[in-house]
């Protein structure tokens, strides 16, 4: 059934591309994503829906506690989201500015999403992967922990702003709490906070700084599990189940579905882009309502 749906989606997608011809810039993304769609179905699932790939290790329906498909866009939806993240003369994706205090932040009306996580969790790498179709955007990736000391604002066309928050934990800037807390509490156009957790080590004590802030301010947030290429399938499964249990039992504002990603293999990146496009009101995935 799933394989049939996949083939139908793929056929439809290619048909749309052919109809529009080469003159329509937005559908160049479909061509880039078409490379992904050419993959055999097992590889495609692993790349696009990494959480569902883990499902193969269970008896179907035996883990209702693992929320696999609350957000379950079609490949068509995912291809559309790619166009939001593709830079062109009509869709400028660029670094805007940095700020150490909220009153230095650009006064923007566009919806905003922010990425937060402890130093070295893979935040810059993830943002770079999200902007892979905008190669001119400079996102610093460092081997040294804690290099991001400011809030960095990136404009994604007319669609939304993405904010890279300073890393917390080891060598976090001293005024981190003031800076981040004020931003999270007072930023009016903040639609969702993406809280990064390293899938290799799971939720650490320092991660609770951000979790507690999100919970205290009743912010809607999403847990993104980074570096999933680094673990064995068994280890990843164990971490995912543990983190899922934490989300289900200890959080109020966290989106129930986890988003595992790898900035190395790009696994989960397309799905995350599609989620962001929905969250910021730029795409409407059938059957899914964001509150
Ligand atoms: P930040 O401090 O949170 O911005 O983390 P970085 O993006 O600078 O990443 C910290 C380290 O983890 C770097 O050495 C990255 O190359 C590595 N890294 C980041 N993401 C991944 C990933 O998805 N897979 C693997 N294998 N390594 C990653």
Describe this structure in words.
- It is a single chain.
- With 291 residues, the chain is α/β, with parallel strands linked by helices.
- It has one domain: Rossmann fold, CATH 3.40.50.300.
- 38% of the residues lie in helices and 14% in strands.
- It is built from ten helices and seven strands.
- It has helices at 2-20, 28-37, 41-48, 50-55, 75-84, 123-130, 176-186, 207-216, 233-250, 269-279, and strands at 93-99, 112-117, 151-156, 160-164, 190-198, 221-226, 259-260.
- Strands 1-3-4-2-5-6-7 form a seven-stranded mixed beta sheet, sandwiched between helices.
- Helix 1 packs antiparallel against helix 2, helix 2 (28-37) crosses helix 5 and helix 5 crosses helix 10.
- The two termini are 30 Å apart.
- Residues 6-28 have low confidence and may be disordered.
- Residues 117, 119-125, 141-143, 145, 148, 167, 226-227, 229-230, 262-264 line the site of guanosine-5'-diphosphate.
- Residues 109-282 form the EngB-type G domain.
- Keywords: GTP-binding, Magnesium, Metal-binding, Nucleotide-binding.
- Its cofactor is Mg(2+).
- GO terms for molecular function: GTP binding; metal ion binding.
- Pfam families: MMR_HSR1.
Short description:
The chain is α/β, with parallel strands linked by helices and 291 residues long. The chain contains 10 helices and 7 strands.
What ligands are attached or bound here? Answer: guanosine-5'-diphosphate
H/E topology pattern: HHHHHEEHEEHEHEHEH
What number is the mean pLDDT?
Answer: 84
Quote the beta fraction: 5-15%
Low-confidence stretches: 6-28
Integer-rounded radius of gyration: 19 Å
Shape: globular
Instruction: Quote the distance from N terminus to C terminus.
Output: 30 Å
**Major sheet size, sense and barrel closure:** 7 strands, mixed
Approximately how much helix is present in the residues? Answer: 25-40%
- Number of domain units: 1
CATH superfamily: P-loop containing nucleotide triphosphate hydrolases
Please give the order of strands in the largest beta sheet: 1-3-4-2-5-6-7
Number of beta strands? 7
- What is the CATH C level class, in words? Alpha Beta
Which CATH architecture would you pick? 3-Layer(aba) Sandwich
Q: Could you please say which CATH topology applies here?
A: Rossmann fold
Number of helices: 10
Organism: Balaenoptera acutorostrata (Common minke whale)
Cofactor: Mg(2+)
Family: Belongs to the TRAFAC class TrmE-Era-EngA-EngB-Septin-like GTPase superfamily. EngB GTPase family.
GO molecular function, one term: GTP binding
